[in-house]
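Before the break, one more example. Copy the sequence into your notebook; we will annotate it together after we see the structure.
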Amino acid sequence: MLGWHGLPERGFAWDYTQSTNFGVLKPGDHVHFMVTPPKNSEGKDAIVTKGVCDQPGGFIWIGGPASWSGTVPPDFAAQHMGRFSGEYRYPGTGGPGPYRALTWKMDTAGVVLKPAAIHSPHPQFNGNVAGQNRALDSTTSPSAMVGAGNVLLISLYITYQTITVDDQFGNTLNAIFSGSPVTEYGGVAINQLMTAAGTYSDPVGNGIIAGVVPAENPPGTPNPVIAVFLASPVPPAPASTVVQNIPVEVGGHSLNPAVVSRQVTTSPPNNLQIVWP
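Here is what the structure looks like once it is written out:
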């Protein structure tokens, strides 16, 4: 017995079932599937005549009746379970006279992950670092937002900590996010990318600012002030303690928690201590 739209009533089997597992996805990914009923006993290919999306599973779908394309919305991150159904026939059937439409069902599955939090326990550090005179701008790491054409002259006492990021299930972030940019404060680039191991390098420390100068002076010529500063002796590290609370984003997804109550202490001549609760 068939339902009003030609599909089986509850308790009756489908003529053809198919399933597709899209595996691990991230927001914004695109997926596709084709419904492919088997050839009949005469070797003729099936013709899919009807198709509906019964359960989108959180994705946005277009297409039909046999070919469907889906998009993972930017705010979706969860298990995906979709269901589609329809009818098909073979050449030579479906003309005048009674015939039974064959029915198909497609189940789709997958999991959509997103960066969710900085992993705990956090990395700690206590040791001596080599001070460096650096000229920073928006392209360096660490970066400095000093306006186009300018650089920040600063004596740095930093180390690069390996930060692990977890997904929304508490697991280390999947390698599909490798290459995603890491930003802070709602989009300020630190010019570091996620690795396939679910980590990124974070420049952490302190510095003594010497000033902001034009990168070129005169235009078209490197500013000689920069070369002089870079070649100057590095002064001793300052005696300073800073507690950092920094919003962090991976691929545009805010982490919670991000950097919270990270205590950074420098002491002369070149000691750096990083303590996370």
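The first strand starts at residue 16 and ends at 25. The chain has two domains: 16-112, 117-275. Try to locate both features in your own notes.
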